[in-house]
Design brief:
Shape: elongated
Protein name: Cytochrome c oxidase accessory protein FixG
Number of domains: 3
Organism: Marinomonas fungiae
Number of strands: 16
Keywords: 4Fe-4S, Electron transport, Iron, Iron-sulfur, Membrane, Metal-binding, Transmembrane, Transmembrane helix, Transport
GO molecular function: 4 iron, 4 sulfur cluster binding; metal ion binding
InterPro entries: 4Fe4S_Fe-S-bd (IPR017896), 4Fe4S_Fe_S_CS (IPR017900), Cyt_c_oxidase_cbb3_FixG (IPR014116), Electron_Trans/Redox (IPR051684), Ig-like_fold (IPR013783)
Length: about 450
């Protein structure tokens, strides 16, 4: 397995003033990120029949998924989705480097939101850089207060929405309005607000470089055919810098540094593949805009593989790439099948602690049990219990109310007048509407002396 060496040649050791740039890759980034951003907020706030589109409800032990209910016992399906997602990430990494980071990663999406707020309130990058070098003025201070206020507002909305995936967000707002929010939720919200504010507003590229492990192990996933953001050194060098004689060298790169100015992680892509690079394509759009003005071919900086830059043929289908794709397919197929086998009726039928059996005055032998039931995607409100093994009878209420959440245990007495000495198996049937399940329970009777 070939490992592509990574460099760390970050140009800025202080604050990075990102210059916003338009272009086809920035448009593509918005096409990818805006629907993801909309889905993040809408799925927690929108309601269908009074239920959110997606919520992991701890209070009711349910997973709500687009009007469909899953039990905690179906949680392994999400594990399958995570496996598919990880394999898809490996596939994309080998195919085109860190495109996930540049186009869909939440850290990148929120960072661009905060950068746009900064650009809108305080002005363009060069203006912000000049202001930071001068004594602070009243209008500058006011703009900074507004900027941080908007950052804080986005952080609060983000924290509320994320928490809404685990508890009802409207009930959460009601609790906050009436000062009845539990302390553990309040602490969590403050933590989430702080992390969003710090990660997207203040730390930004430091998260990508130091906190995210992906920047370090990405080189293991790349090979010589992986298309990554690359500078065509053969075409760009030597750079077109005027010499003392007035002659101009023939490289297409004019050393305008625009590719560095637009980079959200502050690197010079001309130094080669680097760990902080998130493959967002901002430097490609910047360089293409310069090439257009100079009437030169586009693509001095482009998505290209190492083999292409060396003049070799590009190979799309590689064994490892196909292997990752196969894992994605198998995991998704397994999850889809799992959704057809989800639990609609969850029944727990356990023996009571204490005596193994009791003998009634009429000679019947009885065992005591406790039962509780939860229903998912079932309109029925009650569950009926019955014994399919002959000569066994349920005493007490054979109907159990179906609960959502913390279901109550109810006592059940199972008796027979023709007991089998020792341990025996009794077959039980539980039905609720069209849903049903069967269980085998143990029954104990006295042995003859």
């Amino acid at each position: 397995m070939q490992k592509i060496p990574l460099k760390d040649t970050t140009q800025h050791h202080g604050k990075i003033y990102v210059r916003l740039m338009s272009g086809r890759f920035q448009t593509l980034r918005r096409i990818v990120s805006w629907p993801l951003l909309a889905a993040f907020f809408l799925m927690a706030w929108l309601r269908v029949d009074g239920e959110p589109l997606l919520m992991f409800s701890f209070s009711t032990h349910r997973i709500l998924l687009f009007g469909f209910e899953l039990s905690w016992y179906d949680l392994q399906l999400l594990g399958g989705l995570l496996i598919a997602g990880a394999a898809l990430l490996f596939f994309l990494s080998m195919l085109a480097g860190r495109v996930w980071c540049g186009f869909a990663c939440p850290q990148s999406i929120w960072t661009w939101i905060f950068i746009r707020i900064e650009d809108l309130v305080e002005g363009k990058a060069n203006r912000r850089a000049k202001q930071d070098k001068q004594p602070i003025q009243t209008n500058v201070l006011l703009r900074r207060v507004i900027k941080h206020g908007l950052w804080l507002l986005v952080s609060i909305l983000t924290a509320l929405t994320f928490t809404g995936y685990f508890t009802d967000v409207y009930h959460l707002l009601w609790q906050a309005w009436h000062f009845e929010m539990p302390i553990y939720i309040a602490v969590w919200l403050l933590t989430a607000v702080g992390l969003t504010y710090l990660n997207a507003g203040l730390m930004r590229e430091q998260i990508c470089l130091h906190a995210c492990p992906y920047s370090r192990f990405q080189s293991v996933m790349l090979d010589q055919h992986s298309k990554i953001v690359s500078y065509d050194e053969g075409r760009g060098e030597p750079r077109a810098v005027k010499q003392s004689t007035g002659a101009v060298k023939q490289g297409d790169c004019v050393d305008c540094t625009l590719c560095i100015q637009v980079c959200p992680v502050g690197i010079d892509i001309r130094q080669g593949l680097q760990a902080p690079c998130i493959n967002c394509g901002a430097c490609i759009d910047a360089c293409d805009s310069v090439m257009k003005k100079l009437s030169k071919p586009l693509g001095l900086i482009r998505f290209a593989s190492e083999s292409e830059l060396q003049g070799q043929a590009y190979q799309l289908f590689r064994p490892r790439l196909l292997g990752y794709l196969s894992v994605v397919f198998v995991a998704l197929t397994t999850v889809v099948y799992g959704f057809t086998q989800t639990t609609d009726l969850l029944v727990e039928f356990n023996r009571e602690r204490g005596a193994m059996y009791t003998v009634q005055g009429n000679g019947e032998v009885c065992n005591f049990y406790k039962v509780k039931a939860e229903a998912f995607n079932i309109a029925a409100e009650q569950m009926k219990m019955s014994v399919t093994t002959p000569s066994y009878t349920i005493y007490g209420n054979a109907t159990v109310a179906l609960e959502k959440g913390d279901a109550y245990w109810r006592g059940v007495r199972l008796c027979t007048d023709t007991p089998v000495p020792g341990k025996s198996i009794v077959n039980m049937t539980f039905t609720a509407g069209e849903a049903g399940t069967e269980k085998q329970v143990t029954f104990f009777a006295p042995r003859p002396l």
